[in-house]
Every structure is written in C-alpha cells, then in structure tokens.
Design goal:
Blueprint: H1 2-42, H2 48-63, E1 67-69, E2 72-74, H3 80-91, H4 104-147, H5 151-171, H6 173-181, H7 185-196, H8 218-244
Antiparallel strand pairs: 1-2
Helix pairs in contact: 3-8, 4-5, 4-8, 5-8, 6-7
C-alpha cells in the first residue's frame, strides 16, 4: 500500500509539472531557434558551424565559472570562499550542479573528499539536531517547573521552536538574497527550501552573478545557515514522520 501511494504521489507530481513546465520549455526552444536563424540572417559573415562552436565554448566556460565582461573575463568561483561553499554543497549532498571540478585530479579529490565528508556531515548534523532538541526539551522542562504546566509547556515550546526556525531559516533569508542577489522574495524562499532540503536543482545559486559584488563574509555565513538549517529541517521532517506513523 505504501509503495502504491508513493508511486501515485510521484506520478501526480510528474503530471502536474509536465502540464505547468512543458509549454514554457517548448516556447523557449522556439525562441532560441528563431534567434539563431535571425542572427545568421542579419550577419551573413557568420557561419553556422563557427557560431555553434562559439556557443558551445561560452556554455563550457560558464560551467567552469568564467563569463565575458566586455573584452575581459571574470573569475572567482574557485577562490577560497567559492571553493569553501562548493565543499559544503558537496558533503551536504546538495550538489547544485552549476559548478564542478574540470581536472582529473580535482574529480578524484572530490570523490575522496565526499567519501569521508558525507559521513562526517551526517554526524555533525545529528549532533546539531540533538542540541536543538535538548534545548527545546530543557525549555519545556523549565516551564513545567515554573508554571506547573505539563502538556501545554511541551506544545508551547515546540511551537516556538518551529516558528523561530521558520523565521531564521526560511522566512528571513529571502530578504538577504533579495538584497545581495536581486531575487524576488518568492525566488529567495524557493532557493532556501530547495537548498535546506538538499534538492539542489542549481537554477538558483548564491554568489554567481558576475555583475554583482559580494562581501567576503557572504558565502561563509550562508554555509553556516545551510548547516544549522538542514539540522532544523531534519528535526521538522522527523516530527512529521513520527506524526504520520
């Protein structure tokens, strides 16, 4: 029964997403093809194969974190803060997919790094989650002693912890992303949930806009937000699972 419900839920998601996203995909493909032929028609000196090679080169460079800015190129995705953020996204299994090692040595190191880093990350998240849980239980116990509440104290503290977590990890961060990335609140909220749930589509990633200047602390603070946010969301999911069972 559970397997049937699971497959039905996934099938429902697939059907809804196809209905919502497929028309936009077809429209984008038509626009790209139209722009391609218009460019060749308006610039007769351009040859189809040469244009294709240029486009492929731009795409490959963008995947490596290099973009054109006038007559120069921008670097920065593999500086220390960028590499630190990539390391966090690797061992937390978020894996945005917008950036990856391009050298053989880098790929081999990434495998070894993740092999030991993922278990270490799970242990750390478990410890952070346990500390959060102990804090909630301690507050509930203190309320029971002071006000002689029993069930009410536990419910009140859990509600406060849920609301505080929602504010710190899901509702307030989009305001920071709106300021630093130029995203709308909805885009920032979408990025927050996709990141903390480790879905990591990669369509929105912080610190990747070459036209913006980011403070040095930005990616480091976001890395800490990811760690504590994942621990909090794991606790919420655990409570939901216990409730469903």
């Amino acid at each position: 029964v559970l397997l049937v419900a699971y497959l039905g839920y996934v099938g429902l998601g697939a059907g809804v997403l196809q209905a919502l996203e497929r028309p936009a995909e077809v429209q984008a493909a038509q626009n790209l093809l139209q722009q391609h032929w218009e460019l060749l028609a308006n610039h007769t000196c351009l040859q189809g194969p040469a244009l294709r090679r240029l486009i492929e080169g731009i795409i490959q460079a963008y995947k490596s974190g290099i973009t054109l800015q006038g007559n120069t190129t921008s670097l920065g995705r593999w500086d220390f803060s960028g590499s630190f953020f990539f390391s966090i996204s690797a061992i937390t299994t978020i894996g945005y997919g917008n950036l990856s090692p391009s050298t053989v040595a880098g790929r081999i190191f990434c495998i070894l790094f993740a092999l030991f880093g993922i278990p270490l990350n799970l242990v750390l998240l478990n410890e952070i989650g346990q500390l959060m849980l102990l804090g909630v239980q301690h507050c509930a116990h203190r309320l029971e002693e002071v006000f002689h509440w029993q069930k009410k104290a536990s419910l009140l503290v859990k509600t406060c912890a849920l609301v505080t977590g929602l504010l710190l990890f899901l509702l307030l961060p989009p305001l920071l992303f709106s300021d630093k990335e130029g995203w709308s609140y909805e885009e920032g909220f979408y990025y927050s949930f996709v990141t903390l749930s480790t879905i990591g589509f990669g369509d929105y990633v912080i610190g990747m806009n070459p036209d913006r200047t980011y403070p040095g602390w930005y990616k480091n603070v976001i890395s800490l937000w990811i760690l504590f946010g994942m621990a909090w969301l794991a606790l919420v999911i655990k409570f939901c699972i216990n409730f469903l069972e």
